[in-house]
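To: structure subgroup
Subject: Chain for Friday's discussion

All,

I'm putting the inputs and outputs inline so they're searchable in the archive.
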Amino acid sequence: MSSDDSSSSGIHVKRMSDQRADDASNWEHSISQLKDQKQLVQRPNLQDPGYIRQKANNKLWVRERLIALLDQNSFAEVGSVTGKPVYDEETGTLRSFIPANSVTGFGRINGRRVFVTADDFSVRGGHADGGIQMKAPYGELLARKSRVPLIRLLDGSSGGGSVATYLTMGATYIPGMAGLGRSMDTMAVVPVASALLGPVVGLAAAKAVLSHFSVMVKGLSQLFAAGPPVVKQATFEDLSKEALGGWEIHAQNGTVDNVADSEQDAFDQIAAFLSYLPSSIFALPPVVQSSDPSTRREEELISIIPRRRARPYDVRRLIRLVVDKNGSVDDPDSSTFFEMGQTWGRSIVTGFARLAGRPVGVLTSDCLVNGG
């Protein structure tokens, strides 16, 4: 631990130890406790095993992900003090605070308002016993009512059932749908995008496919209904997470749309996806000022499609010649074309692009794959 980290931890301890007794004359004591709880959740506990495990796996902490995804200082958290406070039994002062394993709130991407639900895998692996019931589903309801895009950052079971919950309740139970009905209602009103940023299992796997766009990270994320220990118990197969549900599997079977090289790449893809869409069904898609003149003519278009039908051609090259360029008109690789599903159903090419600044959908055959 660095000296800076040590001093920041000391500030938290000192502030909590300096709390004055509650004389019930005003709300100062209660507000002070809320402020302490907010400060505790804003910074990671560097001694927490969950946080240490998160970093050991080369994964961003949940609030680092929000910083990487959203415009600077645009995040307005909803439910910042949901969690479980731990008080000193003798003095009644706040000793520590275990936040809910879901961080939710409004933010902006390229100036446009969005709502984010982000799983915190460092708290009980995202399971229900580390969360506050219905927090994430309520966030999806807020996105729908506010008519803004919903972004899910999935890591763990995203509030799904766990054995620890059985132990707490003293009985078994069958987990409910956990707001999946609301998820489907939300998809009917606003764009929904999901980033898979770790082992996405159970309820989180259902959320991943209940999206208009989903992206997983190479070597970092996996998706399955149940993990390797459960599979081994049921089928006696000893599989790794990657073999059970890694990106090489789901990138080819259509469970997810795209694959990213890093977490930041996944966030950039979500931002690109949303840039072509309206915030809700009650709005029009955003039109941007294009630096590519509508009078541009590409001489290559006269010859790119061979007259002999048996000869193939590069349809992606054709698309890039037709749609707006993104940046320099002289750059041959510059294009507004954003492809989705490139690794599965490869005989079809789909995506978004712009013409004269207006968003358009692209759907065509690729004659290089099975003749299209």
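Points worth raising on Friday:
Residues 3-17 form the longest helix (15 residues).
The CA atoms of residues 320 and 332 lie 9 Å apart.

D.
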